[in-house]
């Protein structure tokens, strides 16, 4: 009996709305952020969609005029007009901001610590 992908997910997703831009080479798409986790994010697919799934993307999530979460991501899946990305690289400053954002939304420090431990084990 195989597990459903949601049952295997080790990282809690949080719904979050912030001005977000996805880019790859010369292309820059303003996108709608659906949710994010310590390991990646889910967005609505922009139109027109010209992204190359074989190449990495860059995402910039604007938390405020001065505060961003920036990461290099890879397309993991495309379903029902949504694109799921897995984080390939994130700066220490951005991961601290993301951790704080998730901490505020989880309201369970034990769960956050479990997710951080799982992130390190990957």
Describe the structure.
This protein is α+β, with helices and mostly antiparallel strands. The protein has a single domain (5-121), classed as predicted glycosyltransferase like domains (Thrombin, subunit H), CATH 2.40.10. It is built from 3 helices and 7 strands; from the N terminus they run H-E-E-E-E-E-E-E-H-H. The protein has helices at 5-8, 92-106, 109-121; strands at 14-15, 19-24, 27-36, 40-44, 57-62, 68-79, 82-90. Strands 2-3-4-7-6-5 form a 6-stranded antiparallel beta barrel. It starts with a helix and ends with a helix. The model is unreliable at 1-9 (pLDDT under 50).
Strand content: 35-45%
- The CATH topology is given as Thrombin, subunit H
- Name the average pLDDT: 83
DSSP summary: helix tally: 3
Give the helix/strand class.
Answer: alpha+beta
| N-to-C CA distance | 24 Å
Number of domain modules: 1
Encode the helix/strand succession as letters.
Answer: HEEEEEEEHH
Q: What coarse outline follows from CA principal-axis ratios?
A: globular
CATH architecture type: Beta Barrel
Low-confidence stretches: 1-9
Q: What integer value in Å does the Rg equal?
A: 14 Å
> What is the name of the CATH superfamily?
predicted glycosyltransferase like domains
Helicity range: 25-40%
How can the largest sheet be summarized?
6 strands, antiparallel, barrel
Number of strands: 7
CATH top level assignment: Mainly Beta
Lateral strand order in the biggest sheet: 2-3-4-7-6-5
């Amino acid at each position: 009996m195989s597990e459903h992908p949601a049952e295997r997910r080790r990282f809690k997703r949080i719904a979050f709305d912030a001005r977000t831009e996805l880019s790859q080479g010369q292309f820059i798409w303003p996108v709608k952020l659906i949710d994010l986790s310590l390991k990646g994010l889910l967005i609505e697919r922009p139109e027109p969609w010209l992204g190359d799934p074989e190449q990495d993307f860059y995402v910039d999530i604007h938390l405020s005029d001065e505060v961003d979460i920036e990461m290099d991501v890879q397309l993991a899946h495309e379903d029902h007009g949504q694109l799921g990305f897995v984080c390939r690289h994130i700066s220490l400053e951005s991961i601290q901001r993301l951790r704080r954002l998730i901490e505020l939304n989880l309201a369970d420090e034990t769960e956050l610590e479990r997710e951080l431990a799982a992130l390190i084990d990957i």
